[in-house]
């Protein structure tokens, strides 16, 4: 009888946890993070929770500004991935497109740490961290946009993730979208919530800057490849800073990317398309700040650089990018944007 009672109590607890978890997921899908966290706090055994549930909890705490709790769960998730025995960095890169923005940023931070701990060479560190930061850039944008993924995109992405990773992470609910806004076509946002800006800055952009500074100190054999990757990272950081209207730092980081290229390649910096992209996007931020004369200069320099670059995928891509800068130059010369 006692065994039956204990068995009944255990099943009753499991059902209660399941109901609490699913109610919390539904609330997160409606951005009701306080209500969701209140339910999750009543779960019986948080420490042994599955990865997807821990991610859900971490996002709730992150959205509520409870950074200490979010970071504690982040540490628990990090151990989960490191102990999995899988090539987790590649797996994280693959999965983040079907996660909410907060969850994606948390996992990408973990992926960067794993790269530093497990990469076989300094060049692998540069490449791995760059891939994470490239994804983090779009995840921060996604966080601030709060729009929805099409069901077709979700199904397509989930279909690609069947296999070894399915044992770690089941498809998650409460999905948001990635805005595929091009780097060269950036427009500043005015998010309604300062809270989202703080999350994007504290957990996303500041971490990208930390990674950039760590990469700068790494000695590699291929210094040219390192310079190009670091320039793109500067561009990505500037992109996200512009989104939250931190225009001064956005310009400064893009100029830092320009300086990295000029230090490595000297007068040949304009042979690389990232150089023109950085100049163009400095022009965008200046134009959006009303500094049209300065913007005009950078658009002109961007056009020259893009015409000279030799590493575009094809001529059509190059001509399209040149036209982007020429159109921007025409607009800035015609008057206020």
Can you give me a brief rundown of this structure?
With 337 residues, this protein is mainly alpha-helical. It has helices at 2-29, 33-40, 51-63, 67-82, 88-95, 101-118, 122-145, 151-160, 194-216, 223-243, 247-265, 273-288, 292-308, 315-334. The model is unreliable at 147-185 and 188-192 (pLDDT under 50).
Could you characterize the architecture of this molecule?
There is one protein chain. The protein has 337 residues and is mainly α. It folds into 3 domains: 13-80, Serine Threonine Protein Phosphatase 5, Tetratricopeptide repeat, CATH 1.25.40; 84-169 and 192-221, no CATH class; 222-337, Serine Threonine Protein Phosphatase 5, Tetratricopeptide repeat. The protein is built from 14 helices and no strands. It has helices at 2-29, 33-40, 51-63, 67-82, 88-95, 101-118, 122-145, 151-160, 194-216, 223-243, 247-265, 273-288, 292-308, 315-334. The longest helix is centred in the first third of the chain and has 28 residues, at 2-29. The protein is elongated. The N and C termini lie far apart (78 Å). Mean pLDDT is 80; it is low at 147-185 and 188-192.
Task: Give short descriptive properties of this protein.
single chain, 337 residues, mainly alpha, Serine Threonine Protein Phosphatase 5, Tetratricopeptide repeat, 0% strand, elongated
């Amino acid at each position: 009888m006692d065994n039956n009672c204990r068995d009944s109590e255990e099943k009753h607890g499991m059902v209660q946890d399941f109901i609490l978890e699913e109610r919390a997921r539904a609330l997160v899908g409606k951005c009701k993070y306080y209500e969701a966290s209140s339910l999750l706090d009543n779960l019986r055994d948080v420490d042994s929770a599955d990865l997807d549930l821990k991610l859900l909890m971490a996002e709730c705490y992150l959205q509520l500004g409870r950074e200490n709790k979010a970071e504690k769960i982040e540490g628990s998730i990090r151990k989960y991935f490191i102990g999995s025995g899988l090539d987790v960095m590649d797996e994280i890169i693959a999965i983040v497109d079907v996660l909410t923005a907060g969850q994606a940023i948390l996992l990408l931070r973990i992926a960067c740490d794993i790269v530093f701990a497990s990469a076989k060479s300094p060049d692998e560190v540069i490449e791995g961290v760059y891939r994470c930061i490239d994804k983090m850039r779009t995840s921060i944008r996604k966080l601030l946009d709060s729009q929805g993924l099409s069901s077709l995109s979700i199904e397509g992405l989930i279909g690609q993730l069947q296999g070894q990773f399915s044992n770690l992470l089941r498809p998650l609910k409460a999905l948001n979208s990635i805005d595929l806004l091009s780097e060269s076509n950036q427009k500043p946002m005015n998010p309604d919530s300062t809270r989202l800006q703080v999350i994007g800055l504290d957990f996303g952009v500041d971490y990208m800057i930390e990674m950039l500074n760590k990469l700068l100190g790494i000695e590699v054999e291929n210094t040219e490849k390192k310079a190009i990757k670091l320039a793109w990272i500067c561009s990505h950081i500037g992109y996200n800073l512009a989104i939250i209207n931190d225009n001064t730092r956005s310009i400064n980081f893009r100029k830092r990317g320009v300086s990295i290229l000029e230090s490595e390649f000297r007068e040949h910096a304009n042979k690389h398309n990232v150089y023109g992209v950085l100049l163009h996007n400095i022009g965008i931020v200046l134009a959006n700040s009303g500094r049209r004369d300065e913007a005009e200069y950078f658009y002109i320099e961007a056009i020259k650089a893009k015409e000279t670059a030799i590493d575009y995928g094809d001529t059509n891509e190059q001509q399209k990018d040149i036209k982007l800068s020429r159109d921007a130059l025409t607009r800035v010369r015609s008057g206020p944007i």
